[in-house]
Amino acid sequence: MQNVTLYTSDHCPYCLNAKALLKRKGVSYDEIDVGRSPGRLAEMLQRSKRRSVPQIFIGQHHVGGFDDLASLDRAGQLDALLQA
What we know:
Blueprint: E1 4-8, H1 13-24, E2 30-33, H2 38-48, E3 55-58, E4 61-64, H3 66-74, H4 78-83
Parallel strand pairs: 1-2
Antiparallel strand pairs: 1-3, 3-4
């Protein structure tokens, strides 16, 4: 199983949705709260080129945000990406 990293912040409904989707699939993930760690915000910006949260990485692959994650799941592509 690929390592999953979520860059999140408190009170972000899309972050909660992303975590819930992964939990339903039985996927563990590393969560980085960029609101509590400003240095990690710079890391997220460098890796994703985006300012919004969540930013989701499966392995080194940048998935994007929750909508992108949910779209992969609906298309039946998320499980394969997680197993790659």
